[in-house]
């Protein structure tokens, strides 16, 4: 904190770094003294940051918000882990003088300075595409949908399959009796019997 002018933050200016976006932050300047103070904000990287206002006057007991915007970055800075950019906040009692060149002339006595280093922070994580609690609901809905697709009358289906099996056995017995003496026909029946048996097994395995 500079003598006279109170600066917040007073040591580190943080930017929530995101690529291809302008990143804003603020500096709060408060004048707790009984005299009007003039201020000036400088940076070591003027092409990278936009400062508004970068100069001005603060009445006794008043506050001035300085907006700092970091220009959109196409690539991650090489010094992202330890940025070397800095800001310098200068203040001095105006004494009625309005010329900033005169107020902040190099070597002039009474100028107070405060340095702020730049720090990058990670952006907030994106919101989850599935709201909290909805994932469990979807699981329940999936289970309910699968349940609704199951046959509603399982005992009735079992009885139908049993009657089909008995009828198939009776038909097989009649065909065996009539085609027992015909070897070629018997082989054809065996293939027919295997086909019917496979269909019955598939139906039973599919619905039970």
TrEMBL record:
This is MSP domain-containing protein. Residues 120-153 are annotated as: Disordered. It comes from Micromonas pusilla (Picoplanktonic green alga). It is found in: Membrane. The keyword Membrane applies. GO terms for biological process: endoplasmic reticulum membrane organization; endoplasmic reticulum-plasma membrane tethering. It is a single-pass type IV membrane protein. It holds the Pfam family Motile_Sperm. Keywords: Membrane, Transmembrane, Transmembrane helix. Belongs to the VAMP-associated protein (VAP) (TC 9.B.17) family. One of its GO terms (cellular component) is plasma membrane. Its main location: membrane. PANTHER family: AT11025P-RELATED (PTHR10809:SF6), VESICLE-ASSOCIATED MEMBRANE PROTEIN-ASSOCIATED PROTEIN (PTHR10809).
């Amino acid at each position: 904190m500079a003598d006279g002018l109170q600066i917040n933050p007073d040591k580190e200016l943080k930017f929530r770094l995101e690529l291809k976006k302008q990143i804003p932050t603020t500096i709060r300047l408060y004048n707790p003294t009984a005299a009007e103070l003039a201020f000036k904000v400088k940076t070591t990287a003027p092409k990278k940051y936009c400062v508004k206002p970068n100069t001005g006057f603060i009445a006794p007991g008043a506050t001035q918000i300085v907006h700092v915007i970091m220009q959109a970055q196409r690539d991650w800075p090489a010094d992202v882990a330890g940025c070397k950019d800095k800001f310098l906040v200068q203040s001095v009692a105006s004494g009625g003088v309005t010329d900033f060149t005169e107020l902040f002339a190099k070597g002039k006595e009474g100028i107070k300075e405060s340095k702020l280093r730049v720090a990058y922070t990670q952006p907030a994580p994106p919101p989850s595409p599935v709201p909290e609690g909805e994932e469990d609901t979807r699981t329940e809905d999936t289970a309910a949908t699968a349940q609704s697709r199951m046959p509603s009358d399982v005992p009735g289906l079992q009885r139908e399959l049993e009657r089909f099996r008995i009828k198939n056995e009776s038909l097989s017995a009649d065909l065996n009796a009539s085609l027992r003496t015909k070897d070629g026909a018997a082989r054809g029946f065996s293939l027919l019997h295997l086909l019917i048996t496979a269909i019955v097994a598939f139906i039973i395995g599919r619905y039970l």
